[in-house]
Amino acid sequence: MIEKTLNTMNTIVPKDKLLHSFFGNIIYIVSLSSMLLVGLFIQIPMITMFAIAFLLTLIIATCKEVYDYFNKDKHTPDYMDIAYTVHIPFIITIIVILKLILGV
Q: What is the pTM for the complete model shown?
């Protein structure tokens, strides 16, 4: 049953894209945690912290794809990898910014 579910998931979203999403979330969490720690010592607006964490995730994802582009013999560059890496951090950042700005 579990194997069938995993095989079905792999046909819907390839394993490569799931890994990009997973590691994008890890990068975002580490970046945001670092920004929150820095915020203990330096007064930084919360919006800025979330935006910087998202931008760091986007920069790292883009650098990975640039690396893949220049090493085509070992890697396959795909712009969708960037989208899968940053889609959840993007949604979280937008929700938090809207919440802080609009008070929704």
A: 0.84
